């Protein structure tokens, strides 16, 4: 039985988190109002529960579910098994966070009358730089 590790994130918006996971190639991402059980690689129900779940069949052969559970402060923590952390590790979580940040910035820009004038991605670090422009009449 794999041990699940919980990793805190700064992610707060569940719909945006689901969008990021889909951008990263997970076609099926479950989103629930209440935490739902996660399953181990044998199909066994685990004690861990999460509002956002990527089921094991979409994670990889012999994998466990990956989940994101909302914490008391409103942020999500990632729940990833020891086995799956080989691929879905700290670097993968940084990629999730960067894409989440980008979507958050774009949502803020749209809500506040900005347009994206330029977008650059640093190939080495993966950091995204957005240049926003606001037209004032």
Structure description:
InterPro entries: Uncharacterised_Ycf35. It comes from Actinomadura decatromicini. This is DUF1257 domain-containing protein. The strands form two sheets. The protein has a five-stranded antiparallel sheet. The chain has a two-stranded antiparallel sheet with strand order 6-7. It contains three helices and seven strands, in the order E-H-E-E-H-E-E-H-E-E. The mean pLDDT is 91. The protein has one domain. With 137 residues, the chain is an alpha+beta fold. 26% of the residues lie in helices and 37% in strands. 20% of the residues are buried. Helix 1 crosses helix 3 (90-111).
Kindly report the oligomeric state of this protein.
single chain
The parts where pLDDT drops under 50 for at least 5 residues are none
**Secondary structure tally: strands:** 7
On the 0 to 100 scale, the average pLDDT is 91
The secondary-structure element order is: EHEEHEEHEE
Shape: elongated
Give the helix level as a range of percent.
Answer: 25-40%
Distance linking N and C termini? 62 Å
Number of domains: 1
Q: Give the biggest beta sheet.
A: 5 strands, antiparallel
Beta-strand residue percentage: 35-45%
Strand arrangement across the biggest beta sheet: 1-5-4-3-2
**Over all CA atoms, what is the radius of gyration?**
17 Å
Summed up, the helix count is 3
Structural class: alpha+beta
């Amino acid at each position: 039985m794999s041990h699940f590790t919980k990793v805190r994130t700064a992610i707060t918006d569940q719909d945006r988190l689901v969008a990021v996971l889909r951008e990263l190639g997970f076609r099926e991402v479950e989103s629930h109002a209440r935490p739902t059980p996660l399953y181990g690689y044998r199909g066994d129900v685990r004690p861990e529960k999460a509002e956002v779940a990527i089921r094991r069949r979409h994670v990889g052969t012999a994998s466990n579910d990956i989940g994101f559970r909302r914490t008391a402060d409103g942020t999500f923590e990632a729940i990833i098994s020891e086995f799956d952390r080989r691929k879905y590790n700290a670097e993968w979580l940084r990629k999730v966070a960067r894409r989440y940040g980008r979507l958050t910035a774009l949502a803020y820009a749209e809500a506040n009358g900005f347009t994206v004038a330029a977008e650059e991605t640093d190939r080495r670090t993966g950091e995204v730089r957005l240049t926003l422009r606001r037209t004032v009449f």
